Amino acid sequence: MVTEHEVNHIAELADIGINTGELGTFTHQFNAILEYFDILDRVMGEQAVSRDLCNVLREDVVEPSLSQEDVLRNAAHTEDGFIKAPRVM
Amino acid sequence: MAGHDFCFEPDDRYNAFLTTCKNVTCGSGNLTGVAVAVKDNISTKGIETTCASKILKGYVPPYDAHVVELLRQSGAAIVGKTNMDEFGMGTTTENSAFGPTLNPCDTGRVPGGSSGGSAAAIAGGMVRMALGTDTGGSIRCPAAFCGIVGLKPTYGRVSRYGLIAYANSLEQIGPMGRTVTDVSTLMGVIAGYDRHDSTSCNKPFTHTPRADIKGLKIGIPGEYFGAGVDPEVATVVNTAIGRLEELGATTVPCSVPSMEYALAAYYVTCTCEASSNLARFDGVRYGPAADTNKSWHAAYQEVRRAGFGTEVRRRIMLGTFALSSGYYGKYYTKAQVARENVKRDFARIFSEVDVIAGPTMPTVAFKLGEKSDPLSMYLSDILTVPVNLAGIPAISVPCGKVAGMPVGLQIMGRPFEDERVIDVAYAYEQAVT
Asked: Whole domain around residue B73: which residue ranges?
């Protein structure tokens, strides 16, 4: 069982923004869904077998890309060719 | 390249489109002048792309998805962007921030999802073909519910470059159309290697459908006809499989025991991937403006609360929870073991049969608003998600009706045998039309 307190904590971690009015509904739904997920407890084994996959990488060389203008076009706030973000500190 | 002008002014009474392009100039190629609709989570340069989410309202991609570039080269007229469940999260297209799409077969019912707009645009006669995406059945479900054809290709066969990611390890872009031939033609345009997708395989599709299925061995999994599957749907699908036997195929009973936990494994995996993928929507580089006077977390939370719909927020939180310290082993790790078991079950069956057949969906299309509880909505994906976990190809082809609503026959194949599932669907389609 997860509690409203835990759901609120998860919402904080995910930066999802949650209203106190929504907490009860989300908690109720999460408990039903997580109870269904408990069926995974029946799965034997602790680690998925590796499937001989390999990473696909390219050489680290500069290639033509989008222009600065194109990249900034969808940003709401820009300044001197930079994207302006909320303050972090 | 010669330019052709295409005028597109559909009577969109089903809310299939989020954006339409009235005047399109297209080039020459295999699809010259063919109207093709594109699901709104596939990037189209210069055409608004929202994933049916308020958080991307107004976003105009500066580049084309690889498949869109291929469509343009083929001469297709990209006539619009289709409605969907927000970010592909849903089974009905009711989770669109811009209103649900209606099923052209019965406007009181959902078209299925998440590629419901693409399916309705085809079923409603507005376009001949469309692109959809399939993370857990999102091409096959709406194809079944709207009575059209939809293919979920083998993972890696079609580039995902430019697809706005929801669950990378599960999703594929795929073709939808009125006929198997149309689906095959569109697959021929979009399949092939792309260096911008690290999971892309060099397997172009150059096939022409063949209706000869003499000697084909078809596995019939008991789980696809068991509890939760509407008996009337099962009867229609069984009759269709009987038709394949008349055409020279043989059927063998088989079993997918991992189906017991496949749905849970799917939902854990896709929500975990979503929680990571959707972290990028912060109102800084695109989307509604974050308030730069506020602190980072306050601004970020404000944008995401207002921009994401309830189902998207639910899945991000579920994924964050399943990946959090203390729960990772219980949920994510177990889901990956379960996923291997699903893969192994299919490999075992495919060592004895050529394809597997069953219903695409357990029921016909739901009534609008019928499924309000999230878990009951998730459970309706049980017959489509195993294919995504295993990365194999599967097609849905119309095979009859129950209470006037279309039923889909699902044909699943070995990895990279998309050609074979297309042939089986084609053989069936040719026999009944």
From this structure: 14-433
